[in-house]
Structure formats: structure tokens, C-alpha cells
């Protein structure tokens, strides 16, 4: 059944008509050729997620009514923001798409020192828009109830300021992998509580510069390995998100039942 | 420092000269422009992994001597084989590359019923070769000590026969995610012992066919979800491998120290 992440709903969404237009109208009517009586999943990014039925279709709008709330959550219990040193080519699109499937709450493109790629001011808005569209589509296709937010590009100072807003911050650092570090990620994930926020920082292909790592450490944040193997810039965030899901949705979920 | 995965060594590798030729000679001499006295990591797929120093270079060969064994393992303690229903485009290359970074022991292309892609007999050998090359390069770049093996394409009957050789088999099944299944993966991973082998089966974009899933279940194998979100064909294997690493290298590793 098709899913759509829609603009924020009012508290009476269960009893009032829901009217969708523009891209939603186009996709439902012209792409999916849907008819009154057919059902879709709607989610509005606040955690509201439900089955809705099409009641009427006009030239520009689709009217729907609430049928039943979705009984399970497909969102991670913690908000994980992925900050990536700008990688080459289309890797950031890959990270946003697959990171969204894996549950990321937000993405921050980071103008890291060793990044070969630079975002000029006029390019930035366009790139951010394109990535946001990728996040939305990936969220809908992976049955998520929230669409991750793609931040504008941050420099180091801005990223450090942003980091202060999170419950926890981790910096994925290659040298830790080489040194055999293996307990910090587990330690942090085991202590995360539902509703916490974690900022995970990744370098570009050239890695984080020593002064960037030092700045994070000086601010009191830890670095960690993601296992003993060296992961590419576009693979590391996927490991981190999978580890969070495994720890917090499968292991802790199992603890609740077992 | 550069890494190479080389043909199997004899037991006296620590005392006898090591001679490399062909692609190794070309890469060391013509690409990396290495000289006698310089060092590289060598690994031979059996678990032997060490620092070696170049002693001499000729027109066709490079001579090296052992310097010191590598003191840590970058291999997963269990052998994970990833069987993928043939996905579209270059997704299998992605899966092999990133699956190798994440520690997979082997890959089995699976001619699943819903696969849009088919491998003809004459194409198969070429594709297998190309994927093997990708696995080798990814193994070297991620600092692995073994190069994963890319099997020839298997049909369902062949894959079921192959499955019988593993300590455990798991089938990633989308419907389990939708049904909220959340404990089987943890249960299996918690019980894995170092040296065990696990075959993980993934469907193509269209998912596994009901009769394929039934065949695995009939053979006594379980299916499981990978968290509540629906993952793409090329993302699911990366989640699985990350979960194995997190459970067996980080969590159990931490238990040993803590």
C-alpha cells in the first residue's frame, strides 16, 4: 500500500477531512491512478501515522478520511543525525538514501578540511533540495513515519555549535579502528534512552583532519571505531545506523519480551 | 601502508624469501613505484598476515622478506556468506564491495524467481570474475586479511544444497519486518561461536517468492526481519553484516574486557 509523508496535521485528524494537493494529488491521481475507496498510509512527521481512505478526487485536490492509526512504529527510538564530510561524486545521495532506510533523523553535510568536494553558495541550496527529495522518497519507500531533515552545509565551527544540542556525540575515527578500539560505541549505545539524540560525525574520503578531531575532543566528545576494518566514507554511516537499530530495536526489544 | 592479498604461502614464510610477480609486480613497481627497503602488508587468505619488506626488484618479480606478524585480526570471528537474489543494474557490485568492507566471507549470486536480471551461461563467468576482482580490491582497501569468495550463480535447488553446509541459515524476509518480528536475528547471533558459518539469504527487488521461502522453511531454516523498516535489496546485506560485527566484535569483545 502506498505511503505518503504529508504536511503537519491538526489534532482532530481522526475526525476531520484531510485534503492533499500538488505533488500528492499528482502522484495519487496521475501516477498511481487511485480512486475513491482506495487506501493509503499517511504520516506527518510528528509521529502520527495511519491508514486513510480516499473519499473524493477533484481537479487539484484529493480528499481522504482517517481509518485507523498504524499500530507500530518504524522509527528508531533515538534520533540519529549523520554529519558527513562532503564525499565525492554521488556518495552523499547514497548516504542520504540508505541512511534514511536505516532510520536516520537528519543529515548534516560537513565542509571538512580534507573534502575534495566544495559546495559553493549558489550550489548549496540546490543540492540540499535534491537530497531532501531523496530523503522523502526513501522514507516513504522504507515505510518510515518521518522524513529525515537535510541541513544546509556546516563548517567545523557550525558543526561544533550544533553538536552541543545533542544528548551524545560520536566521531567515527579510522585510527581508532587501526588501534583496535572496540568498546566506546557499545558503551554509548547501551546507555542511550528512548528520545535521546546522537550526532555521529564521519570524515570525507581523506579522513578527518587532526585539528578537526582535536576540536571535537576538546569539546568533550569521544571518537570511536566501527569494528576493526576500514570502511569507506559511504559505508561507515550505514554501519553506525545498523548498530543503533540492532542495539535499540532488536536487542532491547528482545529484552522487553524475554 | 599498502596491502596485498597474495597466493597461499608455505609454512616457512617467516624465514624464506617471498617472490611476487604479475599484477603484484606491476602494482608495486609501476603504480606505487616502490623501492627496496619499503614495507607492505601481505595476507594469504589462510589467516597469515604480516609486515614484509622489499628486498629486491627485477623486471618481472619482487622479492620480499617477513618482518613481523600483524598482531590483530580484521576478520569477523564467524564466516558470513551473503546470498543475494540477482538485483538490477550494478547493485551486486555495490553489495560485494561494501559487503567485503563489512567482513563477508563469501557471496552467492542467486537466480531468484522474482529477479528481473538473468545471468546467461556465457555471461556468468565474466560477471563472477569482475565481482571477484571487486572483492579483492575492497578486501585490500579495508585492511582485511582474507579475500571473500564469489561463487558462481546458484539456482534455488543449488542454494538449498549449499545451505546444508552452514552452522546456521537465515532468510531476510520483508513480511517479517511488517509483522514486527524482532528477536530471531539477536537469538541466532548471540548463539554463534567463533568459527561458525552463517548463510544469509536476501531476495531481489521483488522479494523472495512464497515457494522459495517455503522451501527454506521446509528445510528447517528460519526467516527474520532486519528491524521494522523495509530495506532495499542492496542495503539489507549491509545491515546484517553490521549487526554481526556489532554483536561479535564489539559487544562480545567488550564482554571479554569488561
Automatic annotation (TrEMBL), chains A, B:
It catalyses: uridine(1498) in 16S rRNA + S-adenosyl-L-methionine = N(3)-methyluridine(1498) in 16S rRNA + S-adenosyl-L-homocysteine + H(+). The keyword rRNA processing applies. Residues 26-62 form the Ribosomal RNA small subunit methyltransferase E PUA-like domain. Keywords: Cytoplasm, Methyltransferase, rRNA processing, S-adenosyl-L-methionine, Transferase. Coiled coil: none annotated. InterPro entries: Alpha/beta_knot_MTases, PUA-like_sf, RsmE, RsmE_MTase_dom, RsmE_PUA-like, tRNA_m1G_MTases_N. Residues 75-244 form the Ribosomal RNA small subunit methyltransferase E methyltransferase domain. CDD domains: RsmE-like. Its main location: cytoplasm. GO terms for molecular function: rRNA (uridine-N3-)-methyltransferase activity. Pfam families: Methyltrans_RNA (PF04452), PUA_4 (PF20260). GO terms for biological process: rRNA base methylation. SUPFAM superfamilies: alpha/beta knot (SSF75217), PUA domain-like (SSF88697). It is found in: Cytoplasm. GO terms for cellular component: cytoplasm. Its EC number is 2.1.1.193. Specifically methylates the N3 position of the uracil ring of uridine 1498 (m3U1498) in 16S rRNA. Acts on the fully assembled 30S ribosomal subunit. Belongs to the RNA methyltransferase RsmE family. This is Ribosomal RNA small subunit methyltransferase E. It comes from Trichococcus patagoniensis.
Amino acid at each position: 500500500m502506498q505511503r505518503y509523508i504529508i504536511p503537519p496535521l491538526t489534532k482532530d485528524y481522526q475526525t476531520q477531512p484531510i485534503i492533499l494537493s500538488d505533488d500528492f494529488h499528482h502522484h495519487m491521481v496521475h501516477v498511481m491512478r487511485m480512486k475513491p475507496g482506495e487506501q493509503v498510509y499517511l504520516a506527518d512527521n510528528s509521529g502520527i501515522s495511519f491508514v486513510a481512505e480516499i473519499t473524493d478526487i477533484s481537479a487539484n485536490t484529493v480528499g481522504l478520511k482517517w481509518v485507523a492509526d498504524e499500530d507500530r512504529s518504524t522509527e528508531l527510538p533515538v534520533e540519529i543525525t549523520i554529519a558527513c564530510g562532503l564525499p565525492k561524486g554521488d556518495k552523499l545521495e547514497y548516504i542520504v538514501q540508505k541512511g534514511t532506510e536505516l532510520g536516520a533523523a537528519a543529515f548534516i553535510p560537513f565542509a571538512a578540511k580534507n573534502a575534495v568536494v566544495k559546495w559553493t553558495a549558489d550550489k548549496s541550496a540546490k543540492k540540499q533540495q535534491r537530497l531532501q527529495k531523496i530523503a522523502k522518497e526513501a522514507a516513504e519507500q522504507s515505510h518510515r513515519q518521518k522524513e529525515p531533515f537535510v541541513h544546509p552545509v556546516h563548517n567545523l565551527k557550525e558543526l561544533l555549535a550544533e553538536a552541543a544540542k545533542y544528548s551524545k556525540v560520536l566521531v567515527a575515527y579510522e585510527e581508532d579502528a587501526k588501534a583496535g578500539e572496540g568498546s566506546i560505541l557499545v558503551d554509548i549505545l547501551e546507555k542511550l534512552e528512548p528520545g535521546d539524540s546522537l550526532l555521529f560525525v564521519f570524515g570525507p574520503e581523506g579522513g578527518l583532519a587532526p585539528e578537526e578531531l582535536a576540536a571535537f575532543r576538546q569539546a568533550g566528545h569521544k571518537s570511536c571505531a566501527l569494528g576493526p576494518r576500514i570502511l569507506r566514507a559511504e559505508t561507515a554511516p550505514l554501519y553506525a545506523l545498523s548498530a543503533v537499530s540492532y542495539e535499540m530495536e532488536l536487542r532491547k526489544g528482545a529484552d522487553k519480551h524475554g
